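Chain A, query sequence.
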Amino acid sequence: MAQTSATSATVELGPLPKAPGEVRSIQYLRGVAAFGVLLFHAADRAGYVFGLGAAGVDVFFVISGFIMWVVTCRRTPSPGEFLLRRVQRIVPLYWGLTLATAAAAIAIPSAFPAMRPTLGHVVQSLLFVPHRGETGQIAPLIVPGWTLNYEMFFYLLFAAGLMAPARLRPWALTAALVGLAAIRPLGDVHNPLWATYTNPLLLEFGAGVWLGKAWSEGRLPGRGAAWSLIAAGVAGFAVVTLAGVDIETARPLYWGLPALLLVSGAVSLERAGPLPHWWPLRALGDASYSVYLVHGLAISAAFRLLRNLVDGPVPAFTVSVIAGVVAGLAVYQFAEKPLMKLFRTGMAAKRPGAAIPAGAAPASKP
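Chain A, predicted structure.
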């Protein structure tokens, strides 16, 4: 985006937030999306069906595209700098959890009956290489990490787009995403790499980029239209769910479009005026990455511990949901935040002439 666009937005609507984590609506939606995915997996484990919860992934993808544009619209980083920040944000916690889980599964196989980590499986998981595990799914060792394979590929495309002139970046990125989706039928969709890198799901990132561009240029609708967009997004999710359609036949349409409407309405509402501080949603949003990564392990542990202690699936479902949230909050507080602080402090120390501020803490995550 041209620098003049960001400047005009600042004049008309006040300064852009210092970091996308300060876009309160985005943090709230992160919390809702992570909790939805948690409910989806807990319900599935209990024998219930809550397919809509999986749409949290689509909300995350739209948010990711939005954030990538917002964090680069005022000062264009080099592709290397951009990727370094993405790696810093995604890798430490994910690698730590992957290695810890693999070690635990090898040391106590009875506690992980469905997990047989091999060297190839672990290495490909760490390197974000789409591959099939023992179950035949295209998923890494920590199964929710399948979305990170999409994230990292999108980051590579976005980094390449940073080399294009500012005015052409969103168009070049969109052309790449559409082109990849268009050539999907020409290859082997059973090949994990081809199936991932040509999946139309990638279009949801592109939609988020255009939303971020509209945000940064002050081209979002007012409060009334914002509420209409939120209502349309919720209604879209409800209609698709009640219709019982096969989501995977056109997921970017069935879930991606409502996700875009929901995120668009939320950020438009905030652009029209400040949102109230709802600390439970903010806390869940801040910890959403940790909740997303560890909730599956917490749910499995809860069901194994309770299977001989309670009758019926309802108590186990309830406890597993609580366990997933608590585990995510704990991992965020005692692992994710310290890791982010460590990496940010280390990067600041390596910059020539950079001073490390006392008590430096990680900024809200993109």
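Residues 1-21, 352-366 have pLDDT under 50 and may be disordered. The chain has one domain: 3-350.
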